[in-house]
């Protein structure tokens, strides 16, 4: 019995799934915006600023990652706002929750707005304004999940649609149109 248990556990170890990052090349993927969190796209809005609303799952990975190589421009902690998990988030104000503004090398501003679930907690971020980082770098976590609203500039093209499942740092959510 002990031999069988050792054999099965070693087989699980040998044939385990390995995580491979396919998008690590900084040269060929310039102008690409990756998913900052894992979750499901619940709303895509296009207008002056384009936004993607992502609902995180409680059981998914709760890490927060930089969507592109950028510098932290601003970090605001506004009034605490919470929402129920399956309620529709009709929020058009950037004055609630935690808002993180990023600026890339071409001075395009991307913002991340974090709105917690009623049972969740505020995001734990380990960055300050002025910090720089490459994309796919872990900058914190969001305990028990919530909504993440990714606001993009007008010159971006959104490549996801409502209902898509995203994996943080692997799913491409947008591209900049005028990228060399």
What does this structure look like?
With 180 residues, this protein is mostly beta strands. It has one domain: Glucose Permease (Domain IIA) (Distorted Sandwich). The chain has 1 helix and 15 strands; from the N terminus they run αβββββββββββββββ. It has one helix at residues 2-14; strands at 32-34, 39-45, 50-55, 63-65, 70-77, 82-83, 98-103, 109-117, 124-125, 132-133, 138-141, 146-152, 156-158, 165-166, 172-176. Strands 2, 3, 5, 6, 7, 8, 10, 12 and 14 form a 9-stranded mixed β-sheet that branches. A 3-stranded antiparallel β-sheet has the order 1-15-13, with no helix packed on it. Strands 4-11-9 form a 3-stranded antiparallel β-sheet, with no helix packed on it. A hairpin with a 4-residue loop joins strand 2 (39-45) and strand 3. The longest helix is centred in the first third of the chain and has 13 residues, at 2-14. It is globular. It starts with a helix and ends with a strand. The model has no long low-confidence stretch (mean pLDDT 83).
């Amino acid at each position: 019995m002990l031999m069988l248990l050792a054999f099965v556990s070693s087989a699980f170890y040998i044939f385990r799934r390995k995580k491979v990052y396919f998008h690590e090349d900084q040269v060929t993927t310039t102008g690409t915006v990756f998913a900052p969190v894992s979750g499901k796209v619940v709303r895509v809005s296009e207008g002056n600023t384009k936004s993607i609303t992502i609902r995180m799952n409680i059981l998914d990975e709760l890490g927060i990652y930089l969507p592109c190589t950028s510098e932290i421009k601003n970090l605001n902690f506004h009034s605490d706002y919470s929402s129920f998990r399956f309620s529709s988030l009709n929020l058009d104000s950037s004055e609630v929750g935690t808002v993180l503004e990023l600026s890339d090398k071409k001075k395009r501003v991307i913002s991340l707005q974090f709105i917690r679930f009623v049972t969740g907690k505020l995001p734990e971020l380990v960055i300050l304004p002025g910090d720089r980082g490459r994309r796919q770098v872990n900058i914190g976590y969001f305990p028990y999940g919530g909504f993440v609203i990714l606001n993009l500039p007008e010159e971006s093209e959104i490549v996801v649609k409502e209902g898509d499942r995203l994996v943080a740092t692997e799913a491409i959510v947008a591209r900049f149109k005028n990228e060399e």
